[in-house]
Design a protein that fits this description.
With 241 residues, this protein is α/β, with parallel strands linked by helices. Strands 3-2-1-4-5-6-7 form a seven-stranded parallel β-sheet, with helices on both faces. It starts with 6 loop residues before the first strand and ends in a 12-residue tail after the last strand.
């Protein structure tokens, strides 16, 4: 099997899903560019996959602009993964905390996609964008207003950008992960797994496989779509007996 002659730009590579995606794409033979606000952990990830690292706070428009000035090599895949959460009572959540979540999770998707699409438009590159949303865009627990709003916004932004970028042969899709455990599997309890129709919690590899599908050039008929990767949790009716 030949190695892919493509480069992927992945945001939020310091840990969790982002680190797993950088590793998975490198193992498939892709060249990987990664960015994160955590320089120490982000650089460590990219050194482990022989990729390039750039420090970037994706909530800062100036740093996003600088990121694209520094990326000289061509790339054809963008995975907007960077994100933060703030779970606290809406009566205590202040505007700065709200803005931090929305700017990091949602606005960054727009800005980074805009810069990537501008480059692809000029180069006539058939680019592919995958935005990492969340099942929390569609279901909620208390005290999740900022995070839910940001992920719901990513869901809507995805199909809007798919429509706008269609003339330039740029596809945009999103993935909504559910319970994805990036740590030691032994940390989970039996009842954690039993909440899923798949009888287990998710792993980063589950998200990576969905990303591979959406960024495959041969899957060009999938556009503006959201893929839920949650082991069936959002489809499971829960009754107290």
């Amino acid at each position: 099997m030949s190695k892919p002659n493509e480069t992927a730009l992945i945001t939020g590579v310091a840990e969790g899903i982002g680190r797993g995606l950088a590793t998975a794409y490198a193992e498939k033979g892709y060249q990987v560019i990664g960015c994160d606000v955590n320089e120490e952990k982000g650089r460590k990830t990219m050194e482990s996959v022989n990729g390039r690292f750039f420090r970037c706070d994706v909530s800062d428009p100036q740093q996003v602009e600088t990121l694209f000035k520094n990326i000289k090599e061509p790339f054809s895949i963008l995975i907007n993964n960077a994100g933060v959460s703030e779970f606290k009572s809406m009566f205590e959540l202040d505007v700065d905390e709200w803005d931090r979540v929305l700017n990091t999770n949602l606005r960054s998707c727009f800005l980074i996609s805009k810069y990537a699409a501008e480059r692809w438009k000029q180069e006539e590159t058939p680019g592919r964008i995958v935005n990492i949303a969340s099942t929390r865009a569609f279901m909620s627990e208390p005290d999740s207003e900022a995070y839910a709003a940001s992920k719901g916004g990513i869901f809507a932004l995805t199909h809007a950008m798919a429509a706008s970028l269609s003339p330039y042969n740029i596809r945009v899709n999103s993935i909504s992960p559910g319970w994805i455990h990036a740590g030691d599997p032994d940390e989970l309890r039996d009842k954690d797994h039993q909440q899923h129709l798949s009888n287990r919690a998710g792993t980063v590899k589950d998200v990576a496989k969905a990303c591979f599908y959406l960024t495959d050039q041969e899957n060009g008929f999938v556009n503006g779509e959201n893929v839920t990767v949650d082991g069936g949790m959002t489809r499971k009716m829960i009754y107290e007996h």
